UniProtKB/TrEMBL annotation, chain A:
It comes from Eptatretus burgeri. GO terms for cellular component: mitochondrion. SUPFAM superfamilies: YjeF N-terminal domain-like (SSF64153). It comes from the Eukaryota. It holds the Pfam family YjeF_N. PANTHER family: NAD(P)H-HYDRATE EPIMERASE, YJEF N-TERMINAL DOMAIN-CONTAINING PROTEIN 3. Residues 82-292 form the YjeF N-terminal domain. This is ApoA-I-binding protein 2. Signal peptide: none annotated. GO terms for molecular function: NAD(P)HX epimerase activity.
UniProtKB/TrEMBL annotation, chain B:
It comes from the Eukaryota. Catalyzes the epimerization of the S- and R-forms of NAD(P)HX, a damaged form of NAD(P)H that is a result of enzymatic or heat-dependent hydration. This is a prerequisite for the S-specific NAD(P)H-hydrate dehydratase to allow the repair of both epimers of NAD(P)HX. One of its GO terms (molecular function) is metal ion binding. The keyword NAD applies. Binds 1 potassium ion per subunit. InterPro entries: YjeF_N_dom, YjeF_N_dom_sf, YJEFN_prot_NAXE-like. (6S)-NADPHX binds at residues 86-90, 155-161, 184. This is NAD(P)H-hydrate epimerase.
Length: 305, 238
């Protein structure tokens, strides 16, 4: 019964959070009500969220055909190289940011679905919290959330700092139209997040991270660090220096590197590391000597662990 | 209401049986155009986005329908014939992803709109080392050179008579002895009624968003549903 008492305390916290939130919408209230009901219901759960990933079905049939490679041969690119590749894709290869963000976010959703096949998860174990930062990583998170919804996961988004750029506004609208709730408030109570979400997608900072973490992301990353819920980080674990050893910070279970793995991800010690970069033209692969493994079948992600 | 099955990791859903045997009321041309408009205006999608997802799902479907044959050089070769509108744009995206999947696509794109979107897609194909034909070979040469044709000429927006050069192009494709995979609607078909025995008879059809009414008359080998981006509220309106 201990989690039920804990659930009761969480209900009180939820109620206070609800009263003080600024961006409440009817939809948010409806979904939060469902969340609270689930916390205090007598419905039995086969799995308790936040426990080891090994308790969840990994669906080995989805992992079949995943080509692994010797990590010693894969190139880990610097922040500067990542920036240069992006710029070349726009300037020389004619890609638009809408296209690339769409392909990256879709690939992230695919990676998540590979590790946590939705068909093997009861409906109550499909809840995902997607924490989105203010830049491109956050935009990828929005795309990822939309595709997760299409895959029949149940994402909720926390997007506290929204740039006024048309792309980010459009991606937000697309998620809203899919009835994906946007949280106006990320609970600081870790147990609430552990209980409510079976996975967390860290889409806060990517390879453009300058090293400076402004609020509210200091608190957000601190909260995520304390979670037992498995974390999937997009591109780099948020808060890690792109080109260096991480002194402290998130320890995600899954890392999805965009394009190519970054220098800091050599220190990734989680269970699954995917590269989502099938969209890269052969000339880019050759020029930067990326030496990525072959993508299996028509997959848009490949494992490098 | 369109019933969505969740195929994790899959972008192309194989439609079981014929469309008129399952609970799908295919949208009319007008409804299809209205859905498209809503996707852009209300749901906030951009043409770039939807075209990228549509083209990727077409490439995925083609790869499932025609698994890569690496034993012969011809087994990889695909001719992608692109029309002057969005269906052609879907074809350009499809060609690029087929190249990434290991196929050897060649594009024939005789009428190119001067819009940045399409010019960007052409650039992306060029930089992927995808060849563009100046002239469409005759049916016999086409059948010797390529293992299949992707028909990305006309989509659900097509109406009226087929004008040149596409009348001749469709005749050539019809006379070729290699299979055809059509994107959204077999080109030249009446979007509401279907095609006649003289029209294109594709082996594979990839319907985008929802199968159109005319696809009740599709009797080819495989019918895929691609482009999983319709919000549930919009799907309920179908």
């Amino acid at each position: 019964m201990s989690e039920r008492r804990g659930g009761g305390a969480c209900v009180c916290v939820c109620a206070r959070a609800l009263a003080s939130s600024v961006w409440c919408s009817t939809l948010y209230l409806t979904n939060l009500a469902k969340l609270v009901a689930a916390l205090i219901s007598d419905a039995s759960k086969e799995q308790i969220p936040g426990q080891s990933v090994d308790n969840l079905a990994l669906g080995t049939e989805n992992m079949a055909g995943v080509a692994c490679t010797d990590t010693a041969t894969v190139k880990y690119i610097s922040q500067e190289e990542a920036r240069a590749i992006d710029q070349e894709l726009y300037d020389d290869y004619g890609f638009s940011q809408e296209q690339l963000v769409e392909l990256m976010g879709l690939a992230c959703a695919h990676a998540i679905a590979k590790v946590y096949p939705v068909s093997s998860l009861p409906r109550k174990q499909r809840t995902v919290l997607v924490a989105c930062g203010p830049g491109k990583n956050g935009a990828c998170g929005l795309v990822c959330a939309r595709h997760l919804k299409m895959f029949e996961f149940e994402p909720s988004i926390y997007y506290p700092k929204r740039p006024c750029r048309p792309l980010c506004q459009a991606l937000t609208t697309q998620c809203e139209k899919l009835d994906i709730p946007f949280l106006s408030y990320l609970p600081m109570e870790v147990q609430l997040i552990n209980d409510a979400y079976f996975f967390v997608v860290d889409a806060i900072f990517g390879s453009g991270f300058t090293g400076q973490v402004l609020e509210p992301f200091v608190n957000v990353i601190n909260t995520l660090q304390q979670l037992r819920t498995p974390i999937i980080s997009i591109d780099i674990p948020s808060g890690w220096p792109v080109d260096n050893f991480p002194v402290d910070g998130l320890s995600p279970t899954v890392l999805v590197s965009l394009g190519a793995p970054k220098v800091c991800s050599q220190h990734f010690s989680g269970k699954y590391h995917f590269v989502a970069g099938r969209y890269l033209p052969p000339d880019i692969l050759r020029k930067y000597e990326l030496n990525l493994p072959d993508y299996p079948n028509v997959d848009c992600v490949v494992s490098v662990l | 209401m369109l019933a969505w099955r969740s195929l994790v990791g899959s972008l192309a859903l194989l439609v079981p049986g014929r469309c008129n045997s399952i609970s799908v009321r295919g949208p009319s041309q007008e409804e299809a155009q209205s859905i498209d408009q809503e996707l852009f205006s209300t749901a906030g999608f951009s043409v770039d986005q939807l075209m990228e997802l549509a083209g990727l799902s077409c490439a995925t479907a083609v790869a499932r329908a025609f698994p890569l044959d690496t034993d012969t050089t011809k087994g990889r070769t695909v001719l992608v014939v692109c029309g002057p509108g969005n269906n052609g744009g879907d074809g350009l995206v499809c060609a690029r992803h087929l190249k990434l999947f290991g196929y050897e696509p060649t594009v024939f794109y005789p009428k190119r709109p001067k819009k940045p979107l399409f010019q960007g897609l052409v650039t992306q194909c060029h930089t992927m080392e995808i060849s563009f034909l100046d002239v469409l070979p005759q049916a016999e040469a086409l059948s010797r050179t390529f293992s299949l044709v992707v028909d990305a000429i006309f989509g659900f927006g097509f109406s009226g008579e087929v004008r040149e050069p596409f009348q001749s192009i469709l005749s050539t494709i019809c006379a070729a002895t290699i299979p055809v995979a059509s994107i959204d609607v077999p080109s030249g078909w009446d979007v509401e009624i279907g095609g006649s025995s003289h029209d294109l008879n594709p082996d594979v059809l990839i319907s985008l968003t929802a199968p159109k009414r005319c696809t009740r008359n599709f009797h080819g080998r495989l019918h895929f549903l691609g482009g999983r981006f319709v919000p549930p509220t919009l799907a309920q309106n179908c």
